[in-house]
């Protein structure tokens, strides 16, 4: 009896599957895995329909950034010269619960509902498409499934006593969800000019750009005092989390340092986006010790936003 064994190992970001099968005559192998592409989710309920010809026939709640591709399977009839009939499966579905949402892969479609092999060793390909449905807001991540989404049944005819074989192909399903969120610096945080104090002092820039001081520091009049300003772009309805630094050091041209801390934002530590773009104002406090070294002090601070 002729037997064939095929072993393979697939690695994904979710889990890995090692598989081996042995068949008498007929077998199916994966030539190309199913990929829904790279996209941004713009609605809490979203869908991509990927045809078996690789085209996206419809999408809702999705901004497609990079096209994916259909899956391709190769079927082969081995040593039997009798007719071989292979039926495509029906009612397939896979579910992935990941990163705050539920993803359903279903409505698999095939370029052929069945295949017929007459000559021994004949091969043929079948293309596979599917529908991806999302419920809930997914956090941006790479998605991947390795599973057994279908079972192909080969019926060998006309000799009934040859029976049939049940063949399995492990099809990998991939997609990438990217976050639609960004932050852009529009205006620097500037404490302006001041005299070196005779006692420990502090200077605070409020969220509306006002400058206040404590201690014996003298604030010089100038027009350069500004609060920080960033623009946050994202998806309406998403909750944005803002991370501000605890403190940063600023330096003069001689290497002396001053400390800036107590950073605050008019958006707090989190807020819900009510527009695609919103302004975030930043305030902070500069600590100026007694007889601080003179010079032009500068430095950087980082504001991070995420869903």
Short synopsis of the structure:
The chain is an all-beta fold. It contains no helices and 29 strands.
What number is the mean pLDDT?
81
Class by SSE composition: mainly beta
Q: Largest beta sheet, briefly?
A: 7 strands, antiparallel
Distance between the termini: 59 Å
How many helices does DSSP assign? 0
The percent range for helix content is under 10%
Shape: rod-shaped
What is the strand tally? 29
**Element order, helices and strands?**
EEEEEEEEEEEEEEEEEEEEEEEEEEEEE
Please tell me how large the radius of gyration is. 31 Å
**% residues in beta strands:** over 45%
List the uncertain runs.
1-25, 158-162
Q: Mind sketching the topology for me?
A:
Blueprint: E1 4-10, E2 17-23, E3 27-32, E4 34-41, E5 45-50, E6 56-60, E7 62-66, E8 71-76, E9 83-87, E10 93-98, E11 101-110, E12 114-117, E13 123-135, E14 141-147, E15 151-157, E16 164-168, E17 171-178, E18 182-187, E19 194-195, E20 201-205, E21 211-214, E22 218-219, E23 228-233, E24 239-243, E25 247-251, E26 257-265, E27 270-272, E28 277-288, E29 304-306
Parallel strand pairs: 4-17
Antiparallel strand pairs: 1-2, 3-8, 4-7, 5-6, 5-13, 8-13, 9-12, 9-15, 10-11, 11-13, 14-17, 15-16, 18-23, 19-22, 20-21, 20-28, 23-28, 24-27, 24-29, 25-26, 26-28
Key terms for this structure?
307 residues, 29 strands, disordered N terminus, 0% helix, mainly beta, rod-shaped, seven-stranded antiparallel beta sheet
What does this structure look like?
By secondary structure, this protein is an all-beta fold. It has strands at 4-10, 17-23, 27-32, 34-41, 45-50, 56-60, 62-66, 71-76, 83-87, 93-98, 101-110, 114-117, 123-135, 141-147, 151-157, 164-168, 171-178, 182-187, 194-195, 201-205, 211-214, 218-219, 228-233, 239-243, 247-251, 257-265, 270-272, 277-288, 304-306. The model is unreliable at 1-25 and 158-162 (pLDDT under 50).
